[in-house]
Amino acid sequence: MTSEYQSRIQQFTDYMEQHSLDVAMITSPIHIYFFTGYYSDPHERFLGLLLDRRAEVVTLFVPSLDVESVKQASFIEQLVPVLDTDDPYQLLREKIGGKVDKLGIEKNAINLIQYEQLQRCAVIGEFVDVAPFILSLRLIKSAAEIEIVRKAVSVVEHVLAEGVKKVKPGISELEVVAELEYQMKVFGAERPAFETTVLTGVRSALPHGRPNQTKIKRGDYLLFDLGVFVSGYCSDITRTFVVGEANKEQQRIYETVLRANLKAIDSVQAGLEIGQLDREARKVIEQSGFGVYFTHRVGHGLGLDIHENPSIHQQNQLKIEPGMLFTIEPGVYIPELGGVRIEDDIVVNKEGKAEVLTTYPKTLQYLC
Q1: What pTM value is reported for the model?
Q2: Which residues are CB-neighbours of 143 under 8 A, at least 6 positions away?
Q3: What does the alpha-carbon distance between residue 24 and residue 36 come to, in Å, rounded to a whole number?
């Protein structure tokens, strides 16, 4: 993908020229990866990508212990190693020079201390937030990005298929989580995309519940929500099962959520307001009498982050475009009974319709 990274940098420098930005400093590790192909969590150390339009130079500041890793992962040639004993802002000052009329930064990635340090690097006329432009570049995925996500989806579905084999009454939610995260490594995931969720019984009605030592019992819902990173991109899937046999109310809730999921997916069409997908799913759930128990948006974008644009909520007027990648995940959560969520990963294809990347069965399945 080297040419893709170079193309992104060119798009960014074109943006800098259009907005008269002399210099831009990118500090978000995810966005540094987006432009260079190199990802690192620097912890407390300094990591930054400096784009100087005046000198037409792109420089990557990296912790000195990561220099060889950068050379293997990225095409960027101008590297500044930062030792633990160095003042990175002094090194930055030497590259920027004495005066910058407009300095581009990601305002949501800079804390107050970093902002004050940047102010000392040069006489800066104005700080300009470049994060919205970078996010706009990320909104439409390339064919290469979609293929990576497709691999991440394949991995997580293999993980889920192995994980459900371990389910039996009497084991805890956390024991199942441990098996899932072991299988993630077996199948080649870099790491979980978020905290792996397994919730049983009434706890499945907690949309953001955290697994604990609760034991799995027959007759209960069992909700799995998990994802993985592969080559920097993530997947996200939710499936809900019943341990043993379901009663009629459990079946009715499940079928309602499934119909809402399918209706939203079928409604995907380029040019349509993305909020319409939420409205279509919500209508199905409300007509079944469960509207008050659907307490979140119907989906979110994903890619380099597990939650990114577009946000699939009913008031979003953004138009659907080919290349958008997002989840569809309606849910019904009844406190005294339990909850059901069914989540798929969707890409809008060239014809402007939904291609469902997730293939794990969605009909109600009974475990044990």
Answers
A1: 0.94
A2: none
A3: 15
Q: Are residues 131 and 144 both part of a single domain?
A: no
* Rounded distance between C-alpha atoms, residue 303 and residue 238, angstroms: 17
Domain that holds residue 362: 140-367
Query: Where residue 215 sits, what CATH number does that domain have?
Result: 3.90.230.10
91: amino acid identity, one letter: L
φ/ψ of 173, rounded to 5, equals -55, -45
Predicted confidence (pLDDT) per residue in 221-253, tens digit: 999 999 999 999 999 999 999 999 999 999 999
pLDDT digits (tens, 9 = 90+) for 70-94: 999 999 999 999 999 999 999 999 9
Residues recorded for the chain = 368
Instruction: Tell me how far apart the alpha carbons of residues 141 and 148 are, in angstroms, rounded to a whole number.
Output: 11
Domain boundary among 85, 117, 138: 138
Which residues lie closer than 8 Å to 239 by C-beta, 6 or more apart? 160, 223, 224, 342, 343, 360, 362, 365
Domain boundary among 138, 157, 182: 138
Which residue, 353, 328, 331, is CA-closest to 262?
328
Number of domains observed in the structure of the chain: 2
At 98 the pLDDT is 79
Q: Is the dihedral of CA 285, 289, 291, 292 positive or negative?
A: negative
